[in-house]
Amino acid sequence: MPNSSKPPINFHLDHPGDWNAIPRQLTIRGWVFWAGHGETLGVRALIDGRFVLAALGFHRPDVPAVFPQAPGEFTGYQIATPAPRGKFTVELQMRTASADWQTFFATSARSSRWRRPFALGGGSSADLLATQLSLIPQYAARPIRPEQFPTIPAESTALPKLCIVTPSFNQGQWLEQCIRSVTAGSEPGIRHFVQDGGSTDNSVDVLESHSGKLHSWVSKPDGGQADAIALAFAETSGSDDDLMAWINADDHYLPGTLSFVRRYFLRHPEVDVLYGNRVLIDDAGLEIGRWHLPPHDDEVLRLYDFVPQETLFWRRRIWQKVGGVDPSLQFALDWDLLLRFQAAGANIVHLPRFLAVFRIHAGQKSAAIIGSVGQKEIDQLRQRTFGRDLTPEELVQAPVLEAYLRQSARRELAAKFGWRPHISV
Hints:
- The chain has 12 helices and 17 strands.
- The protein has helices spanning about 60-65, 125-130, 170-185, 205-210, 225-235, 255-265, 300-305, 315-320, 335-345, 365-385, 390-395, 400-415, and strands at about 10-15, 25-35, 40-45, 50-55, 55-60, 75-80, 85-95, 100-110, 160-170, 190-195, 215-220, 245, 250-255, 275-280, 285-290, 315, 350-360.
- It starts with 9 loop residues before the first strand and ends in a 10-residue tail after the last helix.
């Protein structure tokens, strides 16, 4: 189904089949490439004025079999998002290594106007899984609302030290904000290590300008994100009760997070690992969504990873017990680490406060490789955990998963009326 571009953008839509009968969840699947313009770096949908990024890299060996000019076998993509109510417009765009965003398909669509909210039992389990706690814009961009943390009384005991690692590669436009979020409080006992993979943008300039606030930084080629994290953590040291974390260069902490986390760990020596809620932001740094997570559930963690990596902190003792990150992984390294923490008997808790922000942008690793490398690693971790492959039906229809997501939806609804969960400090 080529369009009128010269040369044409080659594409095909496998789903949906009927644009006038869109269910609660809009799923768009297909393949696309633009011969002569290099690798496809992004696909997105403009749906009634808001952009939704696609997951890329799905295996489509049928495409080069028909189109020898196709760049390879991984030209498939998928977009999943809640469908607007009633009539709406959809425009599909792609960008390549040599061309900015180009429209290759546009249409009008229609969905039902009436839906019962997830929090009140509406929607199917498939709708719930596709949309609740997903990386999609939830509302129009707005300034980030700051978090209010409970006051923890001062202690005579020294706070645990905290080592934070940031892997980065060509993320100079975000890196400074990430660094400032670590150093803003000027609280002693926090060390920040940046492992840059030899960036060619302004990253080194940013690092040099903040070198006085960083414990150390290096810019040289590495083996990818997991390797960069392992290399940086190898430069850290501390006692068993000291704390560790990594935050990617395009994310950042909310003000007050690090002080609160250190004091919480001090008052709860039994806790090995903690994480919080996530704020979604766009490439301009504006808030576009929030994850309202229920209490931690070990059984859910075995099925899916809903733990926001940028909000994750742990004690050095559990890191040393499991041996750190697996440098062979490219996508699911944080879920793998959590599963090994859990298998090692870690006491994992969720704190119902927003600790950090996750930036959604076109160059994001999670959007770029989820369909290929990412899904393969996810499947391998489930196979390792359960000793067998799980069917899609088992995943979608798992009662514990549906209960967890509906609890998230109820917390999200309650937050709109000012409810805030209590934290025992």
